[in-house]
Amino acid sequence: MLKLDRAAPASKGLLQCDDLGFIQDASVSKSFQGLLFALMLYAAATPAEVVRNLHSAQVPVIDQGRSALASASRDALAEVLVKVSGSEEVLQHPEIIAALPEARSHVQQYAYVRDEQTGDELSARFEFDDSFINRLLTNARLPLWTANRPRVLVWMAVEIDGVRQWVSFADTPGLAAELVSAFERRGVPVQLPLFDLADATTIGLGDIWELRGMAVQSASVRYNAENLLVGRAVLLSNGQWTGDWSYLYGNHRLDRSSQAPGAAGFMRDGVALAAEEMASRYAVAPTGITDDRVHLVVHGVVDFSDYTAIVKWLESLELIEHANIASISGDRVEFGLDAAADAAQLASIIQLNKRLQPQDALPGELVYQWTN
């Protein structure tokens, strides 16, 4: 099974380290390239995106000493566990608490990173063994959220010095960057509106400030995004950020007020709201690999490229180890899935691939139509 945890493209300011005995070339592995290529073949047909660097995290570090590095590795492991599970609650689990002090021994590779603008702020980027992460969560019966995740469209307005404005890379680039960074830390794809003429004719700044859900959903149709996050914030004279967030999904809405000493903290509150709600739908608590395979039937498989696309996507899911052919009859293919989840749990993940359209089936059966 291919994994999505290998090194990302090199970034400026990396200080290479080799005391762990790993090669610090920050190149994308062949296995990742192969999986990425396979996913690109059908990316346009699915609303989910493949999250890269799911098993890595970058955290501040006070110096390059061993003690500071060990402390930073614990912080990074905690961040990765939240990102992979989708929930901050996992950090309260006894098995997770016991594993954090051993974080350093599960680092595959790491590199120091200095702030490109100031050159002073130092952080360290860690990459962890994906099998260790998945095994740790699985043994604790904690949820795993596949790397295939829907994106979130964010509409946000801020009031600074009595002036209200959009959070966008054109108007408020610093805040927009903070927002994107907060989503990256939770492993959730994000999109900001274009703020072009089409947007201007369907939604106004006042709609966001009043958190008008219907107006937001109407303006979001063009973006084909099902998960929406709406935020409003005021920067107070004492530097405090205060405001509200609304997460919208279909007919569901969840509101939350937030206060934070800085913009980054306020953004994290909003992103956490979206991430936790999405994980409640898509993250699955593994049941462990059972003796009986999960059977999946797919109709409309007419050539080998269909078959390979289906298999590669299924096996890219963390909870599926192998997708084996059980039988073939015409354009009907039955797969036996070696999975750490049952049929009902897998169904919530498979729905992210819009090329697999669910068909009428008995409870516990997985039957789909493959579409081009």
From TrEMBL:
Which Pfam families does the record cross-reference, listed alphabetically? DUF2066
Q: Which domain of life is it from?
A: Bacteria
- Kindly give the InterPro entries that the UniProt entry links to this protein: DUF2066
Q: What protein is this chain from? A: DUF2066 domain-containing protein
Organism for this UniProt entry: Seongchinamella unica
